[in-house]
Amino acid sequence: MPGCSGYICASMERSTNTHDMDPTSPVWWIRTRQVSRLTIMAIWTFTLVTLRMTAMPLALIMPPVERRLRKGCIMLWARGFLYFLGARIHLAGQPPKPPYLQVSNHLSYIDIFALQAIQGPVFVAKSEVATWPVFGWIARWMQTVFVDRERMLDLPRVTTIVEDILKTGYGVHIFPEGGIGEGTEVRSFKPGLFEVAIRAGIPVHYVAVSYETPRNTPPPSEWVVWGRGVTFVGHLKRLAAGPGFDIILTYGHSPLDAPDRKQLAQDLTDAVAGAYPGTD
C-alpha cells in the first residue's frame, strides 16, 4: 500500500477482510450490519445538518443562543454517530468545564467524534484537513480552526482566534502531535500552539485517547486506528462492518502550566503518555 509505513501496511492487510474483524458472525450478517449502519448514519447526519442550518440565521440576532444551539446540535450528532457505529465511550477522570484549552494524542477521526460527544469543543487542525473529501466538510461544519503548520507566520493569527474563542466561553482542543499516530506510543507534542496558554496565562488540560476491541477480534491498531493510505470512506466502512469497539477517555487530574511553550509541550507529552495504555 503506497505511502504508509510497514507497521500500518501490515495492519491494514491483515484487516482487509471484514470477516477477520468478527470471525464469530456469518458474512451475510456482517454485510447487513455494515449497510444498515452506514444508511442510518447518513440519515442522521442529514437530519442534524438540516437542523443546524435552520438555526444559522439566529447568529445575526441572538449570537449566544445560536452558539448554544450549534454546540448542542454537533454534540448530539457526534453521540448518535458513535452509537449507530457500535462505539461505546468510557470516561476515566473528570472532563474540564469550559472555557478550557485541552490537548490529547491522536489516533483517528473517531477521537474527534468522542471528544465532541462528551465536551463539544472547538478543534484546531492542520489546514490540509479542510480540503479532504467528506471529512473536510465535516470539520468545517464543526467550526474547526485551521492552521498552516508550514508557515510560522500563521501561528499569531490562530493564537488570536483561539483566545477569542476562549473568551466566548468555549473549550478548545488541540492535537499537538501534528498528525495521526500509529497507536504504539504518544509522539512528542509540537510547542507552537502552546503560545496561547503562555500569552493568556492559563493552564492546559489533557486527556489520553485509547481504544479497546472485543475478544477474538484484531486489536484496535489494526482496524480502529486510521492508518496512512486508507481513505476516510474506506475506514468508516470497515468500522461499520465490525462488532463495535470501546473508546476510553482518560482525563488528567489537574491542568499543567510552565514558564515557556517548549517546557509545556514536554510536560504535556509526558502526562498524556503516562495515561495512555496503548492499542495492542
Description:
Helix 3 (27-55) packs antiparallel against helix 5 (63-85), helix 3 (27-55) packs across helix 11 (232-241) and helix 5 (63-85) packs across helix 6. Strands 1-7-6-2-5-3-4 form a seven-stranded mixed β-sheet, sandwiched between helices. Helix 7 links the parallel strand 3 (122-126) and strand 4 (145-147). The chain has twelve helices and seven strands. The model is unreliable at 1-16 (pLDDT under 50). The protein is α/β, with parallel strands linked by helices and 280 residues long.
The portion of residues assigned to helices is 40-55%
Sequence of secondary-structure elements? HHHHHEEHEHEHEHEHHEH
* Termini separation: 22 Å
Rg, rounded, reads 19 Å
Q: Give a short account of the largest sheet.
A: 7 strands, mixed
Name the overall outline: globular
Overall mean pLDDT? 86
The number of helical elements comes to 12
Arrangement of strands in the largest sheet: 1-7-6-2-5-3-4
- Classify the beta-strand content into a percent band: 5-15%
Q: Which spans of ≥5 residues are poorly predicted at pLDDT below 50?
A: 1-16
Number of strands: 7
Structural class: alpha/beta
**Could you say how many structural domains there are in total?**
1
